[in-house]
Design goal:
The complex is a heterodimer of chains A (296) and B (260). Chain A is mainly alpha-helical. Chain A has eleven helices and no strands. Chain B has 260 residues and is an alpha/beta fold. The chains are: A mainly alpha (296), B alpha/beta (260). The interface between A and B is medium-sized, with 23 and 29 residues.
């Protein structure tokens, strides 16, 4: 199916979601309106008034989509980006943590994969630990990393980025081990007949073979990295970042603030995945990949 | 014996498997002289591919002796004594045809200018002059296999080992490539070891046909071809051709039990 063929189905689903959302807004925020009427000893509002009220509450249980949009607009376009109330400022903090963690995680993942593929002892010993590492809940580990590194005098971006690293290195290891092992035996035999050195076999065969696997892993890793950054911001005393906004919003019952931070985080994740996907397309085209639908 | 390229004496190879030992090669005695075109023919499991892989140092024999260019197979491999062509073209999809052919040259450390010259030369040799800049997926199966032959020729080894290189191609393409391969063999004067399933292919191409039989893999018959060196395709209808083909078939039948 062509790209344009997807637009209408996607928009239809979006419209349905928005409709359900609006209906939920009325349903979830109505009890508050009835409560208010009861306390004021007045009659409950008529349905049309009720709908109007539920969409304009200051601290709704569920904010209406347009309230979230207005909040995002207010805290991005209308605020200076240096302001502590600007979502762009907070998004930037989270983004820089994400990217630092992602870069370290990717480097670590590739290094481990190279070791696992080339060294039998590492293959046997490291892989089980890599898998075990992901069974530990990140929420339990995150505060400890922050606290321990803080005690060691390391503060700022790095401790949070390491939590991103913790989540993002895993898909890279798994994908790269598979990718570096993807050349078939004929291709490896061929290198052997050339009396190729291990490093030559790596750079001229294993590494290029692993590229599709690497990019698939990177898409997962970059999204996981963002999750790590947000989780990492929560135990830091809620100073800055989207995670801090989420936490502050929940402390003070600012649901609109929570939802707008959530949406900005989602948009950030989508953009990051899109960027990696774009890099993959450029890379695969440069590596002479057969274009979709091309004929010989 | 300066003229002997490959010499096997009492060579055997046994694979240890979970179901017990498999005798892939047993008591192989064979000499291949310089400039010969030797075909190995036999049913699956007769060890023809294994023998080729032993020459190429891709398998280690478990008994007997083998020398390649007077050296051990490992030394021969290290001195890049042979080019190997697999059944699949095994071209790297991210390299153009030129770059694929240049791959062994890069690994062996030839200069850029030398690489370009050799690539150009071998592309001409296999009639792919205008396809150097294409990617493998843009070529037909037969052309891909020609490119892989060019790659094996590029570093100018005197020995060419070919493991069913045309096995996956249709008969018309196969005929054409057989003809081309013969021409190539005449012009380059290389020694060729060629594994095949096809009797006509073996008889048409070879100066020597080694008929092998399975369980354990051994040589059933060695036939020196009496056909002349220049061979048009229609030589395959001559009486002499049919006589040799008949002997090959007899050899295969003798070594092969149809009860299994």
């Amino acid at each position: 199916m062509s790209k344009t063929g997807k637009t209408i189905p996607v928009l239809t689903v979006l419209a349905v979601i928005v409709a359900i959302w609006y209906a939920s807004v009325v349903w979830m925020n109505a009890p508050f309106e009835y409560d208010q009427a009861e306390r004021a000893k007045t009659n409950p509002p008529a349905f049309s008034q009720l709908v109007k009220n539920t969409m304009a509450q200051k601290r709704p249980v569920l904010p209406a989509p347009h309230q979230v949009v207005a909040e995002i607009y207010k805290t991005t376009v209308l605020k200076k980006i240096t302001s502590k109330r600007s979502l762009i400022y907070h998004a930037w903090i989270t983004l820089s943590t994400t990217l630092l963690g992602f870069i370290i995680g990717t480097a670590l993942g590739i290094a481990l994969a190279v070791g696992i593929v080339h060294n039998k002892a590492m293959d046997k010993s490291v892989m089980p630990w890599v898998i075990t590492s992901q069974t530990i809940p990140i929420l339990a580990i995150a505060p400890m990393i922050i606290v321990v590194l803080n005690a060691a005098g390391i503060q700022g971006l790095l401790p949070k980025a390491l939590i991103s690293t913790y989540l993002s290195f895993f898909p890279v290891v798994v994908g790269m081990v598979k990718g570096l092992r993807s050349p078939d035996s004929a291709q490896l035999d061929l290198m052997h007949t050339y009396n190729s050195a291990a490093s030559q076999t790596f750079w001229k065969l294993r590494w290029p073979s692993s590229m599709p696997y690497l990019f698939t892993s990177l898409k997962i890793a970059v999204a996981a990295s963002l999750v790590g950054a947000i989780v990492g911001e929560m135990p830091t005393g809620a100073i800055a970042g989207l995670g801090a906004r989420l936490l502050a919003g929940s402390y003070y019952g600012q649901t609109v603030q929570i939802w707008s931070a959530l949406f900005v985080a989602a948009a950030l994740a989508a953009s990051l995945v899109f960027l990696v996907d774009f890099a993959q397309r450029v890379m695969m085209r440069r590596m002479g990949e057969k274009p979709e639908g091309a004929r010989v | 014996m300066p003229n002997v390229v490959v010499s096997a004496k009492n060579l055997s190879l046994t694979f240890e498997t979970n179901d017990g030992p498999v005798h892939a090669l047993s008591e192989i005695d064979l000499d291949i002289k310089k400039g010969e075109f030797v075909s190995f023919i036999g049913p699956s499991g007769c060890g023809k591919t294994t023998f080729l892989r032993v020459i190429a140092d891709l398998e280690k024999p478990t008994g007997g002796d083998i020398s390649v260019n007077g050296m051990s197979p490992e030394e021969a491999r290290m001195s890049r004594a042979y080019g190997y062509v697999f059944q699949a073209a095994s071209l790297q999809p991210w390299r153009t045809i030129e770059k694929n052919i240049a791959l062994p040259l890069e690994i062996m450390g030839h200069s850029k200018a030398e690489q370009n010259k050799r690539v150009e030369d071998v592309l001409k040799l296999v009639d792919l002059d205008n396809f150097g800049k294409k990617y493998p997926w843009q070529l037909s199966g037969g052309m891909q296999q020609r490119a892989s032959i060019a790659r094996a020729l590029a570093f100018d080894a005197d020995l060419l080992l070919m493991d069913e290189p045309f096995g996956a191609l249709d008969e018309i393409v196969r005929d054409h490539l057989n003809e081309q391969l013969l021409k190539l063999w005449e012009t380059t004067n290389k020694t060729i070891c060629f594994v095949t399933h096809s009797i006509p292919e073996a008889v048409y191409l070879s100066t020597k046909i080694v008929v092998m039989s399975p369980r354990p893999g051994r040589v059933a018959d060695v036939i020196e071809s009496t056909l002349p060196k220049g061979r048009p395709l229609d030589i395959r209808e001559s009486d002499e051709f049919l006589k040799i083909a008949h002997r090959v078939r007899d050899g295969l039948r003798a070594g092969h039990s149809y009860d299994e």
